[in-house]
Amino acid sequence: MSVIKAFLFDLDGVIVDTAIYHYQAWKRLANELGFDISEEFNERLKGVSRMESLDIILEHGGLTLPEEKKNELAAEKNQWYLELVSRMTSDDILPGVANFFSQVRKANLLTALGSVSKNAPLILERIGMSEAFDVIIDGTKISKGKPDPEVFTKGAAELGVNPDECVVFEDAVAGVEAGKRGGMFVVGLGSPDVLTQADLIAPSLENLTVADVLNKAETTR
């Protein structure tokens, strides 16, 4: 049986919660196009790439637009989102994250960020966590979004470890599926009713210890 060597983390909903900023920017875009989206609808966009999110929103609004216009709208939404996240600070780091990462370092585990967001490096810089990761895989380094496992398999490859030596931390259904498809042990952060595919589920990193994760990962595979 392989020993766990690396922890791979999603960004949104795991390290910080930028979902509210995405929602505000997408809602503004929908409103400008003549319809609205609710917070409940926004749940469908979690863990999904920007262009895929736009397609879901346009379908919701009953709109079909040419590719050029869609690229224009996606860029506009991203600009509004960047204006919001550029105000983020270390105060936006979710509870329990700093303590958990302290345990990760003491356990000599490698770390990677696996986020489909092209803005991940900016967010990490704003919250002062760029140095917390040995490898950063963001939307600029992948060609397929979650639930494709590319973001995590690429992270493992850059860390120099095998997929079965990795634990993935995710809050979205698409992300949990990506981790599982990549052959990794997956910790779901959120509701057990939603993240049914995860190997271990907790409300957040605040409710976990590294020892608990390692014990579970190494005894259930």
Main pleated sheet: 6 strands, parallel
Helical/strand content category: alpha/beta
What is the CA-based Rg, rounded? 17 Å
- For CATH, the homologous superfamily of the largest domain is named as HAD superfamily/HAD-like
Helix percentage? 40-55%
GO molecular function: beta-phosphoglucomutase activity; magnesium ion binding
Keywords: Carbohydrate metabolism, Isomerase, Magnesium, Metal-binding, Phosphoprotein
Active site: 10, 12
Binding site for Mg(2+): 10, 12, 170-171
Explain this structure.
This protein has 221 residues and is an alpha/beta fold. It folds into 2 domains: 6-17 and 90-219, 3-Layer(aba) Sandwich (Rossmann fold), CATH 3.40.50.1000; 19-85, DNA polymerase, domain 1. Helix content is 43%, strand content 11%. It is built from 9 helices and 6 strands; from the N terminus they run E-H-H-H-H-H-E-H-E-H-E-H-E-E-H. It has helices at 19-32, 39-42, 50-60, 67-85, 97-106, 120-127, 150-159, 173-181, 210-219; strands at residues 6-9, 110-114, 135-137, 166-170, 185-189, 200-202. A 6-stranded parallel beta sheet has the order 3-2-1-4-5-6, sandwiched between helices. Strand 2 (110-114), helix 6 and strand 3 form a beta-alpha-beta unit. The protein is globular, with a radius of gyration of 17 Å. It starts with 5 loop residues before the first strand and ends with a helix. The relative contact order is 0.18. The model has no long low-confidence stretch (mean pLDDT 95). Keywords: Carbohydrate metabolism, Isomerase, Magnesium, Metal-binding, Phosphoprotein. Its cofactor is Mg(2+).
